[in-house]
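Worked example 2:
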Amino acid sequence: MTNSGDRIPHADKVDPQDPARAHILITLKRMELAGVEIDDRAVEIAVHLGRWHQAQRARRDNVPEMRPGHDALNRKRWVYYVRSGHLIKIGTTADLANRLSAIRPNEILALEPGGQALEAERHRSFASLRVSGEYFHPGSALQEHIIHLRESLGPPNWHGSVVPDGQDWFAGPS
């Protein structure tokens, strides 16, 4: 295979409509710099790697999906409900991926569009269950709220950044 002389090396080898095209082309260039001959098999491998990289980035960058009718992609902040051991942490973040990577919960129970004002409201609502800071006992009122969120917004579509302990409180398809 030879390059057509396009400004972008190997652009002729990758479908212009492929959403992972940029990642594939970068992978091809890296392979070429590493001394790999760019033949059909190398392109096939680059396509797999590029699409994998695109999917990883999308998983990291995108907010979780919610049921139709909820404008999840335009939300900037989230109130999250996560299980850490036998406690529930209620917090807020604008960068869900980084925050969940930092706290490494056992389970993500629910996500609710909203910022610090909503988080403070939730902390007041469940103040009788507070253990310390943002950690709460899983009392019935808090459990009912989480169930309501999961029913109205859908279960969190988030599987990264968790430390499973086999005690999923909401087992089953999410």
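The longest strand covers residues 78-84. The chain has a mean pLDDT of 81.
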